[in-house]
């Protein structure tokens, strides 16, 4: 082991990759921006349409009997009543969001304790119309409750007869649970692992197969530097590039959590304690190292970029499948088997700690296993790098 | 000084190099002449420790290539034909410096050698430009500088002029002659008797992994009267009939 040579190789590879605009754009800028931009647009358009409908509910009312419900609706805020001859057509044309048909004998039926049918015309393909429908429904609901109350009073019955049971929620959790955290605990491990598998790939392809394809590998192997030092220099460069890519992607994801919270079930502001962050960082580095070394092995075996990419896709699919398999898992009930399956164990521990569960046995076991996986993948890369049949594969 | 002793290399089903032995003294250019597939590249790759021999060994300045591969590599420089194999996004200087660093040179010495080579090869104008857009001739000069920046005492050339235009070929040939002047031991592989005849002191003809002739140009001319190109064809062809 000659650390000077390793660092020479490492520095050269990093410099080389950072001079490649493609690497910077595909590996850093796009991962960083894709989620904020995508969710930014989605969130914005959703909020826009919500606001538009709520501020100005354009509806038409067809009411022959001039009912009290009609009066009730008109008395609500932000309602614009538009005259319409043909409710269906006007809804379809977007002239109104929804139309209400009130039967002629509405008030009489209510008075006589009968049930009446209220017809609402809306277009379920239109977001605005659906939203208007929801608003009208809740108005009808409020109105109905008023009617029920009157009827009960008329009969001399207490209102509470309708609700024999009241449920009082008492949630057991260390911290206040929020939907944002739940979504985060499902998504973050998955994304972390997927990014850690995919981010080192470009560098691994370039530093193995790319070197072969450009004809630089052979001159490189004629220098005094030993194969192991070349390998480790490359391995660390790949790991660093992978981590930079993962950090860019996760940063992008977290930015979109913050800027478009409505898309992630509301408040997503979760603050992790330092130990959680440290374990998350360590596990992310482990996965990046495991796959960095495996990808370099495959890449050095391949004769060209194209071949490397072909061989790398099944490898990444297997890794991602392992991460996916824990997507819906319940962190309160982890079978010990999971803790001994590569990647699955890392995913499980990530889920646990994001949920605030620190099981030292699980964490230690996963760290030990990770060490084993990293060693095996590096040994495999070493084996590939020292085989004549691999280096001079034609 | 190169001493090849019963060197062999067997791939899965063929003997690419079959029990060859020859010596190259300092200041001597030996031409390794053979057809395509004769075993030239395999021989040079073994000397450079990129391939492990399946039999025999070689000593480079006394270092055994099986036992001390790292030391052997520090003694030699190699120039390959075909693709020059440079890093396009690095400058000419960075390409050369990378190989100096990999050969464990200190910065001061490396910078001094790069400066010398820049002047020698006339690379002043483009030494600090990125290699990507260089012409073939410019790249060839960078590759030459890279192969010798660590001042090796043994130089291996594997069909270095293949695919080069006349100007670039002359650059390479002049470089080989300058190596000889600097008292290096040189192996120059080629499939062209003409080129070998022009540059080399001695010729080793390799055919199907075996050495079928090892003599000086003069002896060869004396032994077989006539055109050497024809001699080569006759030797190689004659063996085929056996
Ligand atoms: N890595 C390898 N695996 C298997 N066979 C090889 C390998 N490299 C070369 N050979 C075979 O060895 C023989 C000699 O090849 P080579 O040394 O490249 O010849 P030359 O350089 O003289 O053209 C050829 O038949 C070639 O096919
Ligand atoms: Mg060859």
How is this structure best described in words?
The complex is a heterodimer of chains A (394) and B (242). Chain A has 15 helices and four strands. Chain A is mostly helical and 394 residues long. Chain A folds into two domains: 250 residues, no CATH class; 107 residues, abc type-2 transporter like domain (abc type-2 transporter like fold), CATH 3.40.1710.10. In chain A, strand 1, helix 3 and strand 2 form a beta-alpha-beta unit. By secondary structure, chain B is α/β, with parallel strands linked by helices. Chain B has one domain: 3-Layer(aba) Sandwich (Rossmann fold), CATH 3.40.50. In chain B, strands 6-7-8-3-9-10 form a six-stranded mixed β-sheet, sandwiched between helices. Chain B is globular, with a radius of gyration of 18 Å. Classes of the chains: A mainly alpha (394), B alpha/beta (242). At the A-B interface, helix 1 and helix 9 of A face helix 2, strand 6, helix 3 and helix 5 of B. Bound molecules: adenosine-5'-diphosphate (ADP) and magnesium ion. Adenosine-5'-diphosphate binds next to helix 1 of chain B.
């Amino acid at each position: 082991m000659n650390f000077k040579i390793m660092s020479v190789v490492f520095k050269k590879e990093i410099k080389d990759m950072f001079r490649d605009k493609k690497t910077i754009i595909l590996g850093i800028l796009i991962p960083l921006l894709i989620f904020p931009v995508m969710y930014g647009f989605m969130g914005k358009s959703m909020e826009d349409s919500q606001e538009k409908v709520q501020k100005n509910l354009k509806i038409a009312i067809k009411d022959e009997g001039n009912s009290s419900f009609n009066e009730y609706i008109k008395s609500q805020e932000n309602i614009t009543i538009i005259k319409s001859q043909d409710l269906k057509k006007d809804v379809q044309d977007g002239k109104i969001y929804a139309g209400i048909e009130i039967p002629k004998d509405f008030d009489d039926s209510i008075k006589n304790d009968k049930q009446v049918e209220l017809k609402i015309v809306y277009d379920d393909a239109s977001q605005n119309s659906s939203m208007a429908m929801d608003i009208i429904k809740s108005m009808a609901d409020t109105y109905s409750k008023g009617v029920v109350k009157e009827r009960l009073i008329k009969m001399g019955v207490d209102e509470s007869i309708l609700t024999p049971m009241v449920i009082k929620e008492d949630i057991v959790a260390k911290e206040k649970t929020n939907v944002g955290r739940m979504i985060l605990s499902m998504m973050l491990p998955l994304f972390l692992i997927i990014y850690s598998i995919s981010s080192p790939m470009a560098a691994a392809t370039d530093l193995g197969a790319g070197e072969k394809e450009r004809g630089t590998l052979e001159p490189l192997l004629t220098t005094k530097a030993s194969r192991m030092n070349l390998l480790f220099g490359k391995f660390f460069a790949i790991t660093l590039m992978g981590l930079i890519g993962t950090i860019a992607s996760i940063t992008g994801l977290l930015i979109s959590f913050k800027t478009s919270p409505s898309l992630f079930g509301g408040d997503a502001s979760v603050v992790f304690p330092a130990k959680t962050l440290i374990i998350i960082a360590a596990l992310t580095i482990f996965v990046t190292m495991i796959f960095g070394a495996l990808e370099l092995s495959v890449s050095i075996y391949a004769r060209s970029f194209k071949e490397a990419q072909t061989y790398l896709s099944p490898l990444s699919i297997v890794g991602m499948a392992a991460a996916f398999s824990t997507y819906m898992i319940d962190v309160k009930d982890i079978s010990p088997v999971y803790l001994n399956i590569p990647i699955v164990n890392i995913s499980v521990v990530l889920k646990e700690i994001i949920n605030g569960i620190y099981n030292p046995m699980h964490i230690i076991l996963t760290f030990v296993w990770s060490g084993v996986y990293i060693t095996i993948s590096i040994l495999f890369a070493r084996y590939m790098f020292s085989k004549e049949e691999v280096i001079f594969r034609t | 000084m190169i001493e090849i002793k019963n060197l062999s290399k067997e791939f899965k089903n063929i003997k690419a190099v079959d029990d060859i032995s020859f010596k190259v003294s300092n200041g001597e250019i030996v031409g390794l002449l053979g057809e395509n597939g004769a075993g030239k590249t395999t021989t040079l790759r073994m000397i450079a420790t990129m391939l492990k021999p399946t039999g025999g060994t070689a000593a480079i300045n006394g270092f055994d290539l099986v036992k001390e591969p790292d030391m052997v590599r520090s003694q030699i420089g190699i120039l390959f034909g075909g693709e020059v194999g440079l890093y396009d996004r690095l400058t000419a200087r960075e390409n050369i410096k990378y190989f100096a660093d990999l050969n464990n040179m200190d910065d001061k010495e490396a910078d001094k050698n790069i400066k010398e080579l820049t002047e020698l090869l006339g690379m002043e104008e483009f030494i600090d430009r990125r290699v990507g857009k260089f012409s073939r001739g410019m790249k060839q000069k960078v590759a030459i500088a890279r192969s010798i920046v660590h001042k090796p005492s043994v130089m291996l050339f594997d069909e270095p002029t293949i695919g080069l235009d006349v100007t670039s070929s002359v650059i390479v040939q002049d470089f080989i002659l300058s190596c000889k002047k600097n008292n290096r031991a040189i192996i120059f592989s080629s499939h062209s008797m003409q080129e070998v005849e022009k540059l080399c002191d001695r010729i080793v003809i390799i055919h199907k992994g075996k050495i079928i002739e090892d003599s000086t140009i003069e002896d060869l001319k004396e032994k077989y009267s006539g055109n050497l190109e024809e001699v080569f064809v006759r030797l190689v062809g004659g063996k085929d009939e056996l």
